[in-house]
Design goal:
The complex is a heterodimer of chains A (245) and B (217).
Chain A: H1 2-11, H2 13-27, H3 33-75, H4 80-92, H5 95-104, H6 112-136, H7 140-148, H8 153-183, H9 196-205, H10 208-235, H11 238-244
Helix pairs in contact in A: 1-2, 3-6, 3-8, 3-10, 4-6, 5-6, 6-8, 7-8, 8-10, 9-10
Chain B: H1 2-8, H2 13-41, H3 46-61, H4 64-75, H5 79-104, H6 107-115, H7 120-151, H8 163-172, H9 175-203, H10 206-214
Helix pairs in contact in B: 1-9, 2-5, 2-7, 3-5, 4-5, 5-7, 6-7, 7-9, 8-9
């Protein structure tokens, strides 16, 4: 193997550069800061923003579907088991398989679209379950009191039940968002953009800096989002705060 | 449809399927043992359990592709990278559930067992573990589905499995090969989900089932 390489190096200057690069790479530090600063605005930042776009848009769409679905299921209990079964099946389909199937559907194609559709489908189980759990936790006496005050069913739903259920719903949004941010990394496979592209380029170039940059940014995005939503959760639960104080 | 079946009839299909299943099973088995041993070791120390649960939580936030990619520079292309990464992926859900459940066994029950002369080891083996079993098993189920799903990504680090078909189909622009791979993985994941769900119900101790029913589920 080795003599062959040397011979080739002698004959082709282009390959020599490649090999030189290869040997230099072995001595490179784990994180090549120069690469990061060179590529930050052209590669890394767009990937991060693309990742946030994919994740947040998906969770937002999923929430728009899950809120009415959850309210319906909490009223019409018979639907709960089938709804959680179907969304549970959707949830267990591996993301790479889901993307691959969606790409072949006419009208979807490659790009962010199949990624967002799959991520919305993954969020439904957690979100619907938490909307129902949140509505269930509203005390029957509170609803009775509201009815006694002459509120209509609609006023009770929007003025009493949903605000009281909000912390549990936000807890569901937390779980869904963290999961979605992780799965969105696979979106690179169907050209959906995001940080997965940085990670995968790192694998195919055998360049640890890119792998670490992509992996750490994705993890950081998940952890920071989780923390911010946790804060939102406690802000939405003022009664719990006063009780603690 | 015929073209998809053609791919499933390929001579190398069983190998891919077997690679996928064996990779997932090995990772799940090793991950379960590690998670359970750690959870039992920390089960009597509040600080240990706190650390275990939080390490598990951060571990869950790391995307599967990132774990595979991070292990990749250490072991290079091949089975080992995939196995190590999937094992790392299998640990957090089991660790979180086991540490939480082992600590949540009510103190009265443990007191009663001590009063009956149980040693610490007996309390762990005959009281804490059986009572925590359903929650621990729910963690194993979560891990199993996640590992089977992530084993699809092993193809990106040369680990083989059914993901190979998806990537082959995508790069050759052949939807049938891609769909054959995708449907196989999806069915495998759903079987895992439903199968472990059934096992979970079967493994719940009788006494706990009675208690669950009494609480109205």
């Amino acid at each position: 193997m080795r003599p062959l390489r040397v011979a080739r190096v002698d004959s082709s200057p282009g390959l020599a550069l490649v090999l030189q690069d290869f040997y230099v790479e072995k001595e490179r530090p784990l994180i090549d800061w120069a690469w990061i600063s060179e590529n930050f605005s052209d590669d890394i930042l767009p990937a991060l923003l693309g990742h946030m776009y994919l994740s947040f848009v998906s969770v937002a769409i999923a929430l728009v579907i899950s809120l009415p679905a959850g309210v319906f299921v909490s009223r019409y209990r018979k639907a709960y088991a089938p709804v959680t079964f179907v969304t549970g099946i959707l949830y267990s389909i591996p993301s790479l398989a889901a993307f691959a199937i969606l790409v072949t559907v006419p009208g979807i194609g490659i790009g962010p679209r199949p990624v967002i559709i799959a991520l919305v489908a993954y969020s439904l189980l957690v979100l619907i379950r938490n909307v129902v759990a949140g509505l269930d936790a509203v005390p029957a006496e509170t609803i009775d009191a509201a009815r006694g005050m002459g509120l209509t069913a609609r006023q009770i739903l929007f003025g009493v039940e949903l605000p009281l259920a909000l912390p549990v719903i936000v807890a569901g949004v937390r779980i869904a968002t963290v999961t979605i941010i992780g799965i969105a990394t696979i979106g690179f496979f169907v050209a959906g953009g995001g940080l997965g592209q940085v990670i995968f380029s790192g694998i195919s170039r055998d360049f640890p800096t890119m792998i670490l940059t992509g992996a750490l940014l994705t993890t950081a995005l998940a952890v920071v989002t989780d923390f911010l939503l946790l804060r939102l959760e406690s802000v939405l639960r003022p009664w719990a705060r006063t009780r603690r104080a | 449809m015929d073209r998809i079946l053609e791919v499933l009839a390929r001579p190398e299909y069983p190998d891919l399927l077997w690679r996928h299943v064996s990779l997932s099973a090995a990772a799940l088995a090793i991950g379960t043992v590690i998670a359970l041993v750690v959870a039992m070791l920390v089960s009597r120390s509040p600080l240990g359990a706190f650390v275990a649960i939080n390490v598990g939580n951060v571990g869950r936030a790391v995307p599967s592709l990132a774990i595979l990619a991070l292990v990749f520079p250490l072991f290079g292309f091949g089975f080992n990278t995939a196995l190590v990464a999937l094992t790392a992926l299998a640990i957090p859900p089991i660790l979180i559930n086991a540490s939480t459940a082992l600590r949540q066994v009510s103190l009265q029950v443990i007191d009663a067992a001590r009063g009956m002369g149980f040693s610490n080891l007996q309390v762990l083996g005959r009281i804490r573990v059986p009572i925590a079993a359903p929650v621990i098993f729910a963690g194993i189920r979560t891990s199993a589905v996640q590992v089977v799903a992530s084993a699809t990504l092993a193809t990106f680090v040369g680990g083989g499995g059914l993901g190979d078909l998806i990537v082959e189909g995508y790069s050759r622009g052949d939807n049938y090969i891609m769909l054959a791979g995708a449907f196989s993985v999806a069915v495998l994941a759903i079987i895992t989900e439903l199968g472990f769900g059934g096992l979970e119900r079967a493994l719940t101790p009788k006494g706990l089932k009675v208690a669950q029913k009494r609480r109205g589920k």
